[in-house]
Each structure stands twice: as structure tokens, then as C-alpha cells.
Design brief:
The structure is a single chain. The protein has 28 helices and 39 strands. By secondary structure, the protein is of the alpha/beta class. It has an 8-stranded mixed beta sheet with strand order 1-2-3-4-5-6-8-7, with helices on both faces. Strands 11-12-10-9-13-14-15 form a 7-stranded mixed beta sheet, with helices on both faces. Strands 17-16-19-18-20-21-22 form a 7-stranded mixed beta sheet, with helices on both faces. Strand 7 and strand 8 form a beta hairpin.
Length: about 950
């Protein structure tokens, strides 16, 4: 909303302060600056506030606002006087205002850094978290305008407002003066205030998803008058799933006398429905969607599933139509799944919601599935259905203009019905937030991700999000740092999901292999080695093995303390007539389940070759008992992930499926795989995830000794000086001297270089630095290219230096082209490279590798997100393939990796503390047996980018 022409011309309307937020109850609202055009809205808002709330605001009876009040509360300069409003449906539901004051409490201007703040929330909207959200946003505005403290006077009886201030997490002081509580809040964000903000964000976003997944009533807009069509299909699926709430069919073209369609009430509009409608499924052409959204918004619908196509996937015009759809829905407090969505499913017995186009509805289970593609959603549902797996929830978000995978991670984190989260993502709108939420969720339940559009370098149609410049391998490494199980295909995602949902986490990489085929066992053994597991020699039961032999062998393997998991391989039994014996699959499944149920809690997987009925029997013969706390088990524990049998499966044999393990946990169904490689890959992912879980239980930290050798304020001053008062938005690269000075503030010493434009200057530089020296070129095309002869080392005297200088210029060109420099020699060691960059999508990334061909040619580079902990730094240098070179490969002396880890932490701190540092490259870093030497450094600065993960809560605008 733009201001009227009479608004102060000195301070333009700050449209970047506008934000959509999710409130405590899951509804949305818009926060924006108040303008001169809001006089009528303000008066109307005030009329709906109770006398008690007015008294709390003005400390006296104040029945109405005077014209002078209205003028004062709608005219702001957006610097010393700022007012924000919360709107729903275009009308105010709350306001906040600050006025800058001096030390005596009188109106003031900068440099005064204190302001008086006051809130007013309509009584009907109190308790929704409106004031808390407003405080976050007005505090961010105040910090932007140079205000460091808020002062507030609150009546003692206004306990709700006192609680808002008290619970915000800011450093505060409180006193009682003249009958009121005087509060002073320091607006500098603290760890507590950030934790409070993220906690509120989690509860609000999880609640917004819960409102969509568990509605009390659903209306399908666009139900055809004859069978067929999208709307009629959704209605049929709703009825077929046995939805426990009320269902309505809506179509403006229904005849006035029509009362029912498929047995449910029929209406021409949402407004005709007398009862509240919680969820609306919109299945009308795109040009009619705005009318449907308005109808829903005016009648209190809480959420929308928009199946209609014709939005951002159709180009610029469709993208603008999509943005307008989101703006319209949010203005009414509604959230959207879609547009171009496939629908959502909630298999909870108390809901039984299938508001989707799924041709084969999944059975109830413990897996949550999110996909951005309808086609991939169909494939995943079909694959899970064929393998007897069940889902707790399913969401296909289409263009995901509003609700995204981040929202469902918020929901699944505490959902007791979900043990594993599977996500197919084609884009990640807020990678920093995704990483944070995925790390938190992965600490209590597995998160498996397939990332589509990995190598296209562009955003899929309909997804208006930042495009990452970092390679896909880097993205994968960063996901694994957050505990995400990153797989390449949807088949691998289903394979991993089945194992993680139905089997306990392995305690280690030791694998027992047993079966009736020596060849299949050897294939499994080789696959385990390829995945980094530690397989034991396969146990060949021979082709004469009976199901009882399998049972006994599995029992022994599970009881063996030297085994962490078991893979069973099986081929069909062949009778005397050469035909496979019928019923063997069911008998073998019963035998394996009996052994697994009686043994310790270790994961079991089956590799089979064409054994009829085995996979189905393994999936069906399972306990239906859900153990308490499985979805939120502590990271250090490794209990089983219980599965739930499909409702259409035959009842399991109580003697088999109802048997508990010795540790008291219920046995899960045993996943079956048609190939050894698939089973082993799924098991390897579980092993790596379990190891991450154990490590995450004791998180790393940034060593305190760094604080004593880091001059953050000094570095900030240098950055301001280097950027200047009017910085180039494209940024600038620092000179060698500037880079050395800035890095030195963080305890990073770069060995100096001196220019050598001619032989005499080179000799003078060497005399100053001391022999032996190195002579090297710094021309961009020769930098770090020792293989081209641009570096001469161990020059012990003047004669050697002059000879090397002549050879260098004769071979490579004139000095003015080569830009040679002289540098003192460093102790011998391993040449490495340390880098930190800011990616527009992923954020700050710290990288490490060996200098030269290993990192540049072979891509042997490891990555971690900033800020890095001591554990991250240690893992970083150990995770490259060439890491043995650092630890005494082939008899060489190990180098000082402790100094290398400290250097990585210092670079991480620099980039994390100063977002203006958008790139740091230290190359080469020579790591010796004792200490290290940084021989080259480049730093690039730029005006700091916006940090969407640190500001006040707001929904993204795609």
C-alpha cells in the first residue's frame, strides 16, 4: 500500500517493512506501515476495541479518537515516528507505534537511541500472538533507524502486555513508578530472543499445517454436474477415504433446486453453506480462482488446496497471477497448498482425509511424504502402494507458492504419527531455514530428500526462488552436515524410507550376510564394501536350506555382538519337477519375522530373486502396535521404527507379528529388495544417519580461545573503510595489503610478498625478507600454476634469484605482464586451500581441499555451512578423499591438522561475523609437521546481503 502524496517526501514509504506472518493459531496476517490513507481504518479499528483495552493503552477512559489523534497516529516520518498495523481482510486488527525520545523522555531525533513504544490489539484477536509478532517487526524497524532501546509504560493489571515484553527474550529492566510498570528493552538480538522467535515460528507454522491436514469440514469448489473431472474426482476420493468431517460440493453452475451431489450437500457458493468451512479444494479454471478465493475469505475458510493450473508454470503472466493469488489468500488469513497441486492426504484414523487426485490411496503408516511434483507424487504413491508401505500424510504442493517443505518439517518434527519424512524437492526457497529445520528434525527422525533439477542451473517452472551457484556435490555435502539423507532417485528414497520406517537404526557398520545362494551373497558382500560398510564373510546355507534353517541362522546373527545388521539373501526353492515350490514366500517370511521378533533390535533387510509372495508377506506380517515415543526418541537411542500394517492386509498371525523383541520393542515389517545393491545402499544410508545421530547428541562448539585473538570491532572498522561511504553494490576485491590487514584482525597471518618489477627490486626485496626466498608471478592467468613454471623456490642467494628472474621472464613474458613478487620460503609441508563464499541460496559455505589438481581437477573438496564448530572443522579435513596425505600417507610424517582446524574456525568466524565478507580464498596454505603458513590470500567485500533467517518472522514472497 503506497502513501498519499502529502506523505513526508524526505522518507519514502518503506515497502520492505511489509510482511505476511503466521500467527499462533495458524492463520496469517499482514504487517505494514501505517499511512495517511488509513484514517478511516484506524477509526473503525478503534471502535472495535473494548473500553478495558483502551484504558490499558491510554491509562484513562478514552472512548473515541479525536481528529488530532487520528492525524498523529497516521502521519509518520518513518524514522523518529513509526506506526505499524496488522491487517486481516484489509482491516486493522492491531497497531504499534514508537516515538524516539531523549534521556528525559521528550521527543527527539537521532542520535538519540531510545524510543517509547505502545501496542493496541483488538480483543477478538488477543491470544493469537499478534503483539509478539508486532514486537519482532517494530524492533527490527527501530534497529534499522538507529534505535537501541524501547521504553514502555504498562499498567500492572495489563498482564498480557507485560508477558509479551517479558517473554520476548531481549535483555530488559523493570521498575515500578507512579502506579505503572516501567520496562526498558535492549533491542540487540540475543540467543534467547532468537530462540523465542524460532520457537514461535515453529508452533505457528506447524499449527497452520495442522489446520490444513485435520479440517472439520471440506468444500470442493468446482464439482462437475456429471461424473468425471477434477472436482468430482476429489469429491469421490474424499468420500472413499471415509473423511470424518463434513463434506460439501460447490459449483456456481448448479441448478437452484439441486440439493446433493454424490450424497453430499450441493451449494452454488461457500456463502450458502450455513456451517463453518475449514478447508476448500479449488478445482476451477485459473480465471475463476480469484472469485472462489474471495468467497472463501469472506466466509472464514482457513486454508485452500488449489489444484488449478495456469500459474507460474505458464510464464511471466502466470507468475504474476500466482503472486496475486497468494496476496489475496493471505489478506484473508488463509494459507495455500499449490497452485497446480495434486492434493493432500492425512491417514490418521480420526481424520481419514484424501483431498487429492491419487488413483491408489496409500494405506495408513508411519511415513510422511512431501513432493513438489504431481507426476513424481503419483510415482511415489504407486511405489509405496506396491511394496505395502503406509503413509501418515502426503502432500503434493505443485508450485508451492505458499506452503512449502519447510512448513511440513515444522509439522512432522512433533507429529506422533510420523517416524520418517520423505521429500522430493525441485527448489528450496529458504535454504538456511531448510537446513536449520532439517537438522532439528533429523535429530529425532530421519529426513530423506531427493533433489530434482540438480544440474540445470535454473529454477523449475513455477518456482521463483534464488538459484544456487554451488555445485550439486556441495549441496549434497551441506545436506549431510544437517543430518539429511540425500539420495539420487525416487526409487532410492522409497528403499531408504521403508528400511528407516520399519527397522531400528544400526549401531555400527558391521553387516552379517546369510542366504541360500553363494553368488547372491558375494554380490551383497561386494556392494557392502563399495558403500563403506564392514561385511562379514557371507554364510551360505546352500540351496537345500529350509525356512527353519533361515530362522536359526538369522537368530544366531542377531544374537552375535559383533554384528550390527543383517542382510538375508534368498532364491526360490526348486522342486524335483523343476518348478518353484508354491507358498515358499509366505513360509520364509513367517520364519524371518519370528527370528527378528525374538532377537535383539537390529535392522534386517531381505534380498530376494523372484520368490513369489515373499515381499508381500514380509510387508503384511507386522505388528500394529506403535511404541510410545518412537517419533521423538532421543538422538542417542537406536530403537526400531515401528510400521503399521495396511488396513486392507490380512490380519497378522499373533504368534509371529505380535511377538515382542527381548528389549520390549515391537518388530517392524522387514523390507524386501529385488537387488543386492538397493538393499545395501538403503542400509548404508541408515548406518551413516545413525552415526550422525550419535554425533549430534554431543554438538560441536566454537573454542573460546578464539575470542582472545579476534578483534571483531577492528575488522568492522576496516571493512567500513575499505567499502567507503557509498559502496559499489557489485563489491570490490581487496589488495594484498588490505587482505593481510583484515585477516590479521582474526589471527590469520599471511606471509608478506614484495613486488619485484625488475631484478634489482627482487634482490632488494629478498634482502629485506631474508634468504631463502621464492619468486613467483601473480598474473591472473598464472596464479597458483606452478606447473607452468611461474614459481621458483628455495632461491638461496642473489645469484640464484637473478638467474631465476631471467629464466622466468624469458619463458613467460615481460615483468609488467607477469607481475612477479618475492616471498620468504615457508617450511615444507602439504599445500592446501581454504575458501569461504556466500551463495545466494545456500548462504555462507566453508570449503577445504588440497591445492591444485586434487581440488580443481578432481573436485576433491569438502564443504560445511558457516558457522562451523570444532567438530565441523575436524570432519572437514578428514572427509576429502586425499585426507590420508595429511595423516602420514606412505610413511610421511603427519602434518599439524590441529593448526589447520584452528585456521578453518577463524575463517568461519570472520565470514559469520561480517556478512560484507562475501569471499575469502587462502591458497596455498602450507601445513607442516608443526604449524602452517598462509602464502596467498584474496578477499572480496560487498554490501551485506539480506539475511532472511535472522530477521523477524515473515512468510516468503515468491
Amino acid at each position: 500500500m503506497q502513501p498519499a502524496p502529502e506523505q513526508s517526501p524526505h522518507h519514502a514509504y518503506p515497502d520492505h517493512w511489509e510482511a505476511d506472518v503466521v500467527l499462533r493459531d495458524g492463520g496469517t496476517a499482514r504487517i505494514r506501515p501505517i499511512t495517511t490513507d488509513d484514517a478511516e481504518r484506524l477509526v473503525s479499528f478503534y471502535e472495535h476495541v473494548s473500553d478495558e483495552s483502551k484504558y490499558y493503552r491510554f491509562f484513562a477512559p478514552y472512548p473515541r479518537l479525536s481528529d488530532r489523534d487520528v492525524h498523529r497516529f497516521t502521519h509518520h516520518d518513518y524514522v523518529d515516528r513509526v506506526g505499524l498495523a496488522v491487517t486481516v481482510g484489509g482491516e486493522f486488527i492491531a497497531t504499534v507505534r514508537y516515538d524516539r525520545i531523549d534521556e528525559r523522555g521528550r521527543p527527539a531525533s537521532a542520535p538519540a537511541d531510545e524510543a517509547e513504544v505502545a501496542f493496541l490489539v483488538q480483543d477478538a484477536h488477543q491470544g493469537r500472538g499478534v503483539a509478539s509478532a508486532l514486537l519482532e517487526h517494530i524492533a527490527a524497524v527501530a534497529r534499522e533507524r538507529g534505535i537501541r532501546r524501547f521504553a514502555a509504560e504498562v499498567l500492572p493489571a495489563n498482564t498480557k502486555m507485560i508477558k509479551v515484553f517479558r517473554d520476548a527474550g531481549y535483555t530488559q529492566q523493570r521498575s515500578f513508578e507512579d502506579g505503572s510498570v516501567h520496562l526498558t528493552l535492549d533491542l540487540e538480538p540475543t540467543a534467547e530472543s532468537l530462540a523465542v522467535q524460532r520457537g514461535r515460528e515453529h508452533r505457528a507454522e506447524a499449527r497452520s499445517v495442522q489446520r490444513l491436514l485435520a479440517p472439520g469440514s471440506v468444500a470442493v469448489i468446482g464439482v462437475g454436474r456429471t461424473p468425471g473431472g477434477v472436482g468430482r474426482t476429489v469429491l469421490r476420493n474424499l468420500l472413499g477415504a471415509g473423511f470424518t468431517g463434513r463434506t460439501y460440493a460447490v459449483n456456481h453452475a448448479f441448478a437452484e433446486g439441486l440439493e446433493t451431489v454424490d450424497g453430499v450437500p450441493a451449494h452454488r457458493s461457500i456463502g450458502e453453506i450455513e456451517e463453518p468451512v475449514d478447508l476448500a479444494v479449488v478445482a476451477v479454471p485459473a480465471d475463476r480462482v480469484p472469485e472462489a478465493v474471495e468467497d472463501c475469505g469472506e466466509h472464514g475458510v482457513q486454508g485452500l488446496v488449489v489444484l488449478s493450473a495456469g500459474y507460474a508454470e505458464w510464464g511471466a503472466e502466470g507468475r504474476e497471477r500466482q503472486r496475486e493469488l497468494v496476496r489475496q489468500a493471505r489478506s484473508y488469513g488463509m494459507r495455500i497448498i499449490g497452485p497446480n497441486a495434486f492434493g493432500l492426504i492425512n491417514n490418521a484414523e480420526t481424520v481419514r482425509l484424501n483431498a487429492s487426485l491419487a488413483p491408489e490411496p496409500p494405506a495408513p503408516g508411519r511415513i510422511g511424504l512431501f513432493t513438489q511434483s504431481g507426476a513424481i507424487g503419483i510415482a511415489l504413491l504407486s511405489g509405496l502402494y506396491r511394496r505395502g508401505a503406509g503413509l501418515s500424510t502426503f502432500i503434493s504442493a505443485g508450485n508451492r507458492a505458499d506452503i512449502s517443505g519447510n512448513d511440513f518439517l515444522q509439522y512432522w518434527y512433533e507429529d506422533p504419527n510420523t517416524d520418517v519424512a520423505l521429500l522430493y524437492l525441485e527448489s528450496i526457497g529458504n535454504p538456511r531455514k531448510f537446513t536449520r529445520l532439517a537438522r532439528r528434525t533429523a535429530a529425532v527422525k530421519p529426513v530423506v530428500v531427493v533433489k530434482g533439477a540438480r544440474h540445470s542451473g535454473s529454477t523449475p517452472p513455477g518456482h521463483a526462488v534464488p538459484v544456487s551457484r554451488i555445485p550439486d556435490a556441495t549441496v549434497s555435502a551441506l545436506m549431510r552436515q544437517a543430518g539429511v539423507i540425500r539420495v539420487d532417485t525416487v526409487t532410492e528414497m522409497v528403499d531408504a524410507g521403508l528400511l528407516l520406517a520399519d527397522q531400528p537404526l544400526p549401531a555400527g557398520p558391521r553387516v552379517a550376510i546369510l542366504g541360500n545362494s553363494e553368488s547372491l551373497g558375494l554380490l551383497t558382500y561386494d556392494a557392502c564394501l563399495a558403500e563403506g560398510l564392514r561385511p562379514r564373510p557371507p554364510l551360505d546355507l546352500t540351496t537345500a536350506a529350509t525356512p527353519q534353517d533361515f530362522r536359526d541362522a538369522l537368530s544366531r546373527a542377531l544374537a552375535d555382538e559383533g554384528c550390527d545388521s543383517v542382510i538375508v539373501t534368498a532364491i526360490p526353492w526348486v522342486g524335483e519337477d523343476g518348478e518353484a515350490e508354491a507358498g515358499d514366500g509366505e513360509v520364509l517370511a513367517a520364519a524371518l519375522h519370528t527370528a527378528a521378533a525374538a532377537g535383539p533390535a537390529k535392522p534386517v533387510a531381505v534380498v530376494h530373486v523372484e520368490i513369489g509372495g515373499l515381499a508381500e508377506a514380509l510387508a503384511a506380517a507386522t505388528s500394529t502396535v506403535t511404541q510410545p515415543g518412537t517419533a521423538t526418541r532421543p538422538p542417542s537411542a537406536t530403537p526400531p521404527g515401528p510400521g503399521t500394517a495396511p488396513t486392507t492386509a490380512p490380519a497378522p498371525d499373533p504368534a509371529v507379528a505380535g511377538t515382542d523383541r527381548k528389549d520390549g520393542s515391537a518388530p517392524g515389517r522387514i523390507p524386501a529388495y529385488p537387488a543386492a545393491e538397493r538393499a545395501v545402499r538403503a542400509l548404508a544410508e541408515a548406518v551413516r544417519y545413525a552415526q550422525w545421530r550419535r554425533q549430534a547428541a554431543l554438538p560441536g562448539k566454537v573454542p573460546e580461545f578464539l575470542d582472545d585473538t579476534i578483534d571483531g570491532p577492528g575488522a568492522a572498522g576496516l571493512i567500513d573503510t575499505f567499502l567507503g561511504p557509498d559502496p559499489d553494490p557489485r563489491g570490490r576485491s581487496l589488495t594484498h595489503t588490505e587482505a593481510r590487514e583484515l585477516l590479521g584482525r582474526y589471527g590469520i597471518t599471511v606471509r608478506p610478498t614484495l613486488p619485484a618489477p625488475d631484478p634489482d627490486a627482487a634482490v632488494a626485496a629478498a634482502d629485506r625478507l631474508g634468504y631463502p626466498v621464492a619468486l613467483k608471478t601473480t598474473a591472473p592467468h598464472l596464479r597458483h600454476r606452478a606447473d607452468l613454471g611461474g614459481v621458483r623456490l628455495d632461491l638461496a642467494n642473489e645469484a640464484a634469484l637473478r638467474r631465476a628472474y631471467g629464466e622466468l621472464t624469458d619463458l613467460l613474458g615481460k615483468p609488467v605482464e607477469l607481475q612477479p613478487v618475492v616471498q620468504a620460503m615457508a617450511p615444507r609441508g602439504v599445500d592446501t586451500v581454504v575458501r569461504a563464499t556466500i551463495d545466494p541460496a545456500a548462504g555462507a559455505v566453508l570449503s577445504f581441499g588440497l591445492s591444485g589438481a586434487p581440488s580443481e581437477l578432481l573436485g576433491d573438496t569438502a564443504h560445511r555451512l558457516v558457522p562451523a564448530t570444532d567438530r565441523d572443522a575436524a570432519e572437514l579435513i578428514r572427509s576429502i578423499r586425499a585426507a590420508p596425505v595429511l595423516f602420514g600417507w606412505r610413511g610421511a610424517a603427519p602434518v599439524d591438522t590441529a593448526s589447520l582446524e584452528e585456521l578453518l574456525l577463524r575463517v568461519s568466524r570472520l565470514v559469520d561475523d561480517h556478512p560484507e565478507v562475501v569471499s575469502v580464498a587462502l591458497e596455498p596454505v602450507v601445513v607442516a609437521t608443526q604449524g602452517l603458513t598462509v602464502l596467498g590470500a584474496s578477499v572480496r567485500l560487498s554490501p551485506p546481503p539480506a539475511r532472511t533467517d535472522l530477521g523477524p518472522r515473515r512468510l516468503p514472497n515468491y
